[in-house]
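Thread amino acids onto this structure.
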């Protein structure tokens, strides 16, 4: 594995005293925005949320009042025309990610788009091309990657403490199946567990392995009562050097979000890999040790990383090309799940 690449990706952090603020606008009042991203951005060193838009003005005004946001708009177009906004965060349903990201970038705004960045790799590439053409920063909102523990995990792998890498296993499941009107259960809107939570172990494996998968095989529970989206999926992504990610994800199962890195002489156990307690454990020939990590707001870290790229104070840690590559893996997983075949990438 190219651990030099992994360390390079994860180590691009800088400590800078901030005297200015990146002015954010938010398109949509989704739960992830209201409960996580907006509060996290407000807690960041670099960001301030100045406006929020909804197609329902009353909803935008209510959300703005609740969260202390100065301006509320009743259309997405209005917020893009606000000259006092530097960057747009997009937590809309998946099928709207490409359209409104492109429209925001063409309006001169930097864009943080919720994961998955698009419905497929072709859409993601169009978004990446637009970012390059417009000279703006485009990032996919995988907040967990900003926590320094992933640098620590990469360092442990590179050190050889757990031996030669043999595989990674990841999970992300929760049970929301009773909420039948949820946008996650609209197949044409990009619903399903692979899009919603399977994308996390897929991205984590790519990050820690420093490589791209070569093939995918996925078995899924396709639910007719949930518009035939994948409510549970179990799969394998084949990486170079005979290493694989095995994963399961679901929206109709007990909650868990774990990651395990397996080597010839030990393993790294991450009980709460994406959200929750950041502490993890290393099992080696010397026994089990706990690696205590700081409890940090990953959404605040995400906002700070984004702003410093916009201001030219650091290079992008995760580029649009990374988002395109992640979508290629997701595309293969979805194709495999619905065709019940192994799919080369």
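Threaded sequence (345 positions):
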């Amino acid at each position: 594995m190219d651990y030099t690449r992994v360390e390079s990706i994860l180590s691009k952090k800088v400590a800078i005293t901030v005297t200015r603020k990146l002015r954010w606008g938010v398109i949509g009042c989704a739960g992830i925005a209201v409960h996580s991203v907006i509060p996290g951005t407000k807690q960041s060193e670099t960001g301030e949320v100045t406006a929020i838009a909804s197609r329902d003005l009353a909803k935008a005004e209510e959300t703005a009042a609740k969260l202390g946001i100065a301006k509320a708009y009743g259309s997405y177009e209005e917020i893009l025309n606000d000259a006092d906004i530097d960057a747009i965060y997009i937590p809309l349903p998946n099928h709207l990610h490409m359209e409104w990201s492109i429209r925001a970038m063409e309006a001169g705004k930097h864009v943080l788009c919720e994961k998955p960045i698009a419905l497929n790799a072709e859409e993601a590439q169009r978004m990446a091309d637009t970012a390059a053409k417009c000279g703006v920063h485009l990032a996919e909102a995988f907040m967990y990657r900003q926590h320094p523990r992933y640098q620590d995990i990469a360092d442990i792998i590179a050190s050889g403490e757990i031996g030669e890498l043999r595989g990674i296993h990841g999970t992300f499941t929760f049970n929301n199946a009773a909420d039948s009107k949820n946008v996650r259960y609209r197949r044409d809107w990009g619903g399903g567990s692979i899009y919603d939570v399977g994308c996390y172990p897929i991205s984590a494996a790519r990050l820690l392995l420093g490589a791209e998968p070569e093939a995918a095989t996925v078995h899924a529970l396709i639910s007719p009562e949930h518009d035939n989206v994948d409510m549970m999926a179990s799969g394998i992504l084949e990486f170079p050097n005979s290493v694989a990610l095995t994963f399961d994800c679901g929206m109709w199962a007990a909650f868990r979000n774990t990651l395990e890195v397996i080597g010839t002489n030990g393993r790294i156990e991450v009980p709460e890999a994406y959200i929750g307690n950041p502490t993890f454990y290393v099992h080696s020939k010397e026994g089990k040790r706990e690696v205590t990590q700081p409890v940090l707001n990953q959404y605040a870290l995400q906002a700070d990383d984004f702003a410093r790229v916009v201001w030219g104070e650091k290079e992008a840690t995760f580029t649009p090309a990374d988002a395109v590559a992640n979508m290629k893996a997701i595309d293969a997983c979805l194709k495999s799940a619905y065709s019940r075949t192994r799919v080369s990438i």
